[in-house]
From TrEMBL:
Cleaved signal peptide residues: 1-17
All copies of domain CcmH/CycL/Ccl2/NrfF N-terminal, residue ranges: 6-148
A GO CC annotation given for this chain: plasma membrane
Transmembrane portions of the chain: 101-122
Gene3D superfamilies (UniProt xref): Cytochrome C biogenesis protein
CDD domains: CcmH_N
GO MF: metal ion binding
The protein's name in its UniProt record: Cytochrome c-type biogenesis protein
Organism, scientific name: Thalassobius vesicularis
UniProt keyword Signal, yes or no: yes
């Protein structure tokens, strides 16, 4: 029974991250705040969104998101404000344009390059001719028979 309670507490713990005093009274604005914050990374916990994090900085970010929404900012404006303030790292899904485009394209490009180099290596290896094997001279054959004990 204790294990069940502990398991349920651990599973439900992200639900407790958003404190009751943070929740907006308007359900529409609160839904928008949840929508925005699910795409924002907790800068302390790294790969966790700010709604699931119990860190103090995540709380500050949740409050900041709600302040901006109450002030009338759109979802994109709130995200842009946070990116301007904390950098693009605050986004759980980084943008694919600009300099990031090079990073997104680098992995597949390296894979294609490696496959090309491997294919060329195998093709050249198959085309290579074996060096002609020369027969042993009579002196070499005698020496071989001595070594082999024949």
């Amino acid at each position: 029974m204790k294990r069940l309670i502990l398991t349920l507490a651990l599973i439900a713990s992200p639900v407790w991250a958003v404190q009751p005093d943070e929740i907006l009274s308007d359900p529409v604005l609160e839904a928008r705040a949840r929508e925005v914050s699910k795409d924002l990374r907790c800068l302390v916990c790294r790969n966790e969104n700010i709604d699931d994090s119990n860190a103090d900085l995540a709380r500050d970010l949740r409050l900041l998101v709600r302040e901006r929404i109450v002030a009338g900012d759109s979802n994109d404006e709130v995200k842009q404000y946070l990116v301007d303030r904390y950098g693009e790292y605050v986004l759980l899904k980084p943008l694919t344009g600009g300099v990031n485009g090079v990073l997104w394209a680098a992995g597949p490009a390296m894979l294609l390059l490696a496959l090309g180099i491997g294919g060329l290596y195998l093709r050249r290896r198959q085309k290579g001719t074996d060096a002609p094997v020369e027969a042993l001279s009579e002196d070499e054959q005698k020496r071989l028979k001595e070594i082999m004990g024949e």
